[in-house]
Amino acid sequence: MKTFLQAFLLCVSVGIVAAAQDSPIPAPQKHQAAGIQSTSIMGAVSEPGEELRFVTDQRAWNVDNPETLKGHQGHYVRVNAHVCADKDSIHITEVKMPTASESRKNDVQ
What we know:
This protein is α+β, with helices and mostly antiparallel strands. The chain has a domain of 67 residues: CATH 2.40.50.500. The chain has 2 helices and 5 strands; from the N terminus they run ααβββββ. A 5-stranded mixed barrel has the order 1-2-3-5-4. Strand 1 and strand 2 form a beta hairpin.
């Protein structure tokens, strides 16, 4: 009986170790490593002729990679961005036009 219990515990431990190795932890991105949060934000891109900024109902953000907003001047868009509140800026990773169900009225942020 003792041998059976030892064999059973050995099988369970090997299974736990194998399962732990199957779920690798992804390497943090540059901004995540610095402790900067990634979020989805809806807002407008400043009009042409101005410095490209991303404007929400609460504030206007400086964009540290404004080339991602080119072609969206004057549009209301949803962006995925890393927010750096202490520098009052965002680093945009993705820009999307809102769907028909998304609007300023439905925007909770």
